[in-house]
Design goal:
By secondary structure, this protein is α/β, with parallel strands linked by helices. It is built from eleven helices and 16 strands. The strands form five sheets. A six-stranded parallel β-sheet has the order 3-2-1-4-5-8, sandwiched between helices. Strands 6-9-13 form a three-stranded parallel β-sheet. The protein is globular, with a radius of gyration of 19 Å. Bound molecules: (3R)-3-hydroxy-L-norvaline (VAH). (3R)-3-hydroxy-L-norvaline (VAH) binds next to β10. GO terms for molecular function: L-threonine 3-dehydrogenase activity.
């Protein structure tokens, strides 16, 4: 029986990953952890929850032993824009937390997942149809963290035989938990503002293409990768993943199919625009398809329909 521990359970991915894993493997078999306590009515409290600062190795190991964990999904991290504002703290949290999680996986023989990101690429990376194996010279602290993390996952697999698995997530779009501190957050905020205000001012410029994916596809991809036959997995550092390559005007056009009067304006944030410009326009996902059957279900139109309906419902029941 799987006994899963998820760090960063209150984050944008962690929030939905906990719910999905509990539905698949049983409430009591998924330990959610985060540095802060969830609201009492949070779905996270429907199963085991513990406070954990991932930079506290002793506490992490104590939870792994107490809960008899066999699978670690390490999601706790600072995202790109926040990391750029506080690079030293970002290094301590992102790398210190990852090292502790990898050491827990090595010490207790855990199956291991942690996400990388398209942020692991930089300005010298081919921007179109970015290959699985290519130049990785990111110019953000977040990107440096993600490249180092990928190399650590490969090292722990090669040197210690840890079953490490990872993906390079694109921007993730969800109506469940609004993200914080990401460069791609415009693609989430725009849907909430479309429903609530009928307009949105984007901090990312038009024609700035980035890979994105609907959160349901992202969660399904994690489960599919973790359930895959390890013998077939060649890229133990991280797999390119994407559901679509979009820019703000494309999202606005999709929203206008449902909200014809929606208005999009721009007030570009130089820090996040610089990060976005350093990332690929679109990446090649053929390795993920070939090695473990990655197959996203949502395109921009379908995702827009689901996002707008869910936010309308969310606001109605408030
Ligand atoms: C960020 N949402 O913007 C994250 C993600 C590819 C972007 O890593 O930092």
């Amino acid at each position: 029986m799987k006994k899963i521990m998820i760090t960063g359970a209150l984050g944008q991915i962690g929030t939905e990953l906990v719910v999905k894993c509990r539905a698949l493997y049983g409430n009591e078999n998924v330990l959610a952890t985060d540095i802060r306590k969830p609201e009492l009515d949070s779905p996270i409290m429907e199963g085991p929850f513990e406070i954990l600062d991932v930079t506290d190795r002793d506490r992490m190991f104590e939870l792994v032993e107490t809960f008899k964990v066999d699978t670690m999904m390490h999601m706790a991290a600072l995202l790109s824009a926040t990391a750029e504002k506080n690079p030293l703290f970002a290094w301590d949290l992102n790398m210190g937390g990852l090292m502790n999680a990898l050491e827990a996986a090595r010490t207790y023989n855990l199956k291991f997942f942690t996400p990388s990101s398209i942020g692991a690429f930089g300005p010298s990376t081919p921007k179109v149809n970015t290959p699985q194996v290519t130049i990785q010279r990111p110019t953000s602290m977040y990107g440096v963290n993600k490249v180092a993390g990928e190399l650590l996952c490969q090292y722990y697999f090669d040197k210690f035989g840890v079953d490490t698995r990872s993906v390079r997530f694109p921007g993730l779009i969800s109506h469940v938990k609004e993200p914080g501190g990401g460069t791609t957050d415009y693609a989430v905020e725009i849907y909430f503002e479309a429903v609530r205000e009928g307009k949105y001012t984007s901090f990312i410029a038009e024609n700035t293409f980035m890979d994105m994916m609907f959160m349901d596809d992202a969660i399904d991809a994690i489960i599919k990768l973790m359930e895959a036959d390890g013998v077939k997995l060649i890229n133990r550092n991280a797999y390119n993943l994407s559901g679509m390559s979009i820019e703000p005007e494309m999202v606005a056009a999709a929203i206008k199919e449902f909200y014809p009067n929606f208005e999009l304006a721009y007030d570009v944030d130089p820090t996040r625009q610089t990060i976005a410009d350093s990332w690929p326009d679109n990446i090649d996902v053929s390795c993920a398809r070939a090695e473990w059957g990655f197959e996203p279900k949502y395109d921009l139109t379908e995702m827009t329909k689901v996002m707008l309906e869910a936010i309308e419902h969310k606001d109605k029941v408030k």
